[in-house]
Write a sequence for this structure.
């Protein structure tokens, strides 16, 4: 199905992006209010998450990283259960034992969230190998950042996937920042897809703030993986609009650069593409805010795990 063929499909993607934005802003506000632990938000990167995840099939798998809420929500995660996880509640996706940084959700095909930068790349090789050995089809989408691409695990993973023909969709969210260091300081060029080509992968760089473009590029990449069994590399070129984590005053960020990217906010771009009026977009933002407020209240009201749960589901 071509989900970006009609206005209705793009409209659904807009609603999902608004839900992610509302979730991230609530998470940041609750951290500032001292009611939740710190979190790494994906504000500004919603088109990358929604565009790629919308192109995946139900049986495909996802590996993600410390900036994972957008990927989870794009996959249909219940925001109340993500908040519950962040708050350490029993109703969280991992029964309150993972926090925001280690969530996995089997029912959504989200294999893991890696907080070790780059580990999602080495683990993707194993997941890709398992998929190819099972011979039932399926693609593993591995989300990672430009900082992870500067680590050795990136090159090892791509090399293995290329040689072993693993069905992995590498999604590099090049958001220009690696914690408090700008990408310019750690890489000789702008585009990470060049490195992928040198490892023998088919690769593309796409405007990561244009959800329709991301969706189409991901769809084309996934089709290539399914037809050839070989990995594909997609770089979504985007920008991290908030700090590395909350709280972060972004004092080290070039104000002009931030303003330039905020003027290309992925939600605003889609609103313009769809020709939505201010009233229509305000109503849509309001619906997302209500869903997120309800989710937060549900998570707050949820119980903490029983003491007897302490050593269950963990290595002892
Ligand atoms: C192996 C390792 N080194 C350092 C860190 C600390 N750290 C957490 S996120 C981050 C930046 C990662 O940048 P990038 O991969 O571009 O992802 P982004 O945060 O931009 O989404 C760093 C250095 C870590 N978690 N793991
Ligand atoms: Mg980055």
């Amino acid at each position: 199905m071509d989900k970006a063929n009609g206005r209705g499909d793009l409209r659904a993607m807009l609603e999902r992006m608004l839900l992610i934005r509302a979730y991230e802003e609530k998470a940041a506000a609750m951290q500032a209010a001292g009611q939740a632990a710190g979190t790494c938000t994906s504000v500004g990167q919603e088109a990358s998450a929604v565009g790629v995840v919308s192109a995946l099939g139900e049986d495909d798998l996802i590996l993600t990283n410390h900036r994972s809420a957008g990927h989870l929500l794009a996959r249909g995660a219940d925001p109340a259960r993500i908040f519950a996880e962040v708050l350490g509640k029993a109703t969280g996706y991992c029964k309150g034992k993972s926090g925001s940084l280690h969530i996995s959700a089997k029912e959504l095909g989200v294999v893991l969230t890696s907080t070790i930068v780059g580990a999602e790349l080495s683990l993707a090789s194993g997941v890709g190998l398992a998929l190819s050995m099972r011979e039932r089809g399926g693609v593993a989408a591995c989300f990672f950042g430009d900082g992870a691409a500067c680590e050795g695990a990136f090159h090892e993973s791509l090399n293995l996937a290329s040689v072993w023909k693993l069905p992995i969709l590498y999604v590099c969210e090049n958001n220009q920042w690696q914690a408090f260091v700008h990408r310019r300081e750690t890489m000789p060029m702008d585009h990470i897809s060049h490195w992928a080509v040198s490892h023998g992968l088919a690769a593309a760089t796409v405007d990561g703030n244009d959800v329709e473009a991301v969706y189409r590029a991901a769809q084309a990449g996934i089709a290539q993986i399914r037809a050839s069994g070989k990995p594909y590399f997609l770089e979504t070129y985007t920008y991290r609009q908030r700090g590395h984590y909350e709280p972060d005053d972004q004092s080290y960020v070039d104000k002009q650069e931030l303003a330039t990217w905020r003027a290309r906010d992925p939600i605003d771009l889609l609103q313009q593409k769809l020709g939505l009026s201010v009233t229509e977009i305000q109503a849509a933002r309001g619906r997302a805010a209500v869903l997120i407020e309800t989710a937060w209240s549900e998570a707050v009201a949820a119980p903490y795990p029983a003491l007897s749960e302490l050593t269950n589901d963990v290595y002892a």
User: Anything to note?
Assistant: The chain has one domain: 7-304. Residues 145-147, 175, 177-178 surround magnesium ion (ligand 2) (CB under 6 Å). The two ends are 45 Å apart (CA to CA).
